[in-house]
Design a protein that fits this description.
261 residues; 9 helices; globular
């Protein structure tokens, strides 16, 4: 399993960074593909317990959402979300015999969880110095995952959320945040100061590490609620899109907001 994880990383990371470098609609299409697969994984998890999500609107909405983000149109993005909310709110009204209210709500939440969060990755790439910023957030999340695993497996004693993820520890989480912070400090000192100051790099590392840990726990809670080990099998040794990108999805909105504001 460990060798499989390493090989997947050796192949996948350079390929992902290549798409980040290309940017534009090519990178956007990759993110759309990942988001759609992630949404399919979410709906599959829901179906494991007999729940009946409504998948088609999400598969249509996510490409439209990314297109609005690509155009950098706040008004179009807001309009799409209002229409989607109205659609899912009215489904149980007009299809009451087929779709329960909570099924409609779960379907809507999946789009928010996967589509809304992942769209911030495209928004980050579209920023000035977006290539560097995207590399930074990826590096922070990867460093957090690696250091959390190393510290947790060697020094971890205090459970972080035992009922949700028994193997995660407070020590491992703090180690992950420290690793993310260290990468932020390092990259900010190496890259032009127009990208990030050293202070901002360190602070962002702490924020990204903390948000990533929460994203990981959220995904663990989702899988535990349906008694699933992984959300999918797209990445050998790592699981599915939601298993691999959960931390990144949670960190991206916070990262973007910090850069903007």
């Amino acid at each position: 399993m460990f060798i499989t994880r390493v090989l997947t990383g050796i192949i996948g990371i350079p390929l992902l960074l290549f798409f980040v470098y290309l940017g534009g609609y090519i990178y956007g299409l990759l993110l759309v593909l990942l988001a759609v697969i992630g949404l399919r994984e979410y709906y599959t998890l829901m179906e494991k317990t007999g729940w009946g999500p409504v998948p088609l609107p999400g598969y249509v909405f996510i490409p439209l959402l990314f297109y609005a983000v690509y155009l950098e149109s706040i008004s179009l993005t807001a309009l799409l979300w209002v229409l989607l909310f109205a659609f899912f709110s009215l489904l149980p009204v007009f299809l009451a015999t087929r779709i329960k209210y909570w099924e409609s709500a779960l379907s809507f939440w999946g789009i928010v969880y996967v589509g809304a969060l992942s769209s911030f990755l495209l928004a980050i790439r579209l920023l000035p110095e977006g290539f560097y910023l995207t590399v930074i957030i990826f590096a922070m999340v990867w460093a957090s995952d690696i250091t959390a695993y190393l510290v947790g497996s060697s020094l971890g004693r205090i459970p972080l959320a035992k009922k949700v993820s028994p193997k995660k520890t407070v020590e491992g989480t703090l180690g992950g945040i420290a690793g993310s912070c260290a990468v932020g400090l390092l990259l900010a000192s190496l890259l032009p100061q127009t990208v990030l100051t050293v202070f901002s790099g360190g602070l962002l590392g702490i924020l990204v590490g903390g948000a990533g840990a929460l994203g990981d726990l959220t995904q663990s809670a989702l899988k535990r609620s349906v008694n699933a080990k992984d959300s999918g099998t797209l990445f050998p040794g790592h699981g599915g899109v939601l298993d691999r990108f959960d931390s990144l999805f949670f960190a991206a909105p916070l990262f973007y907001a910090y850069i903007i504001f």
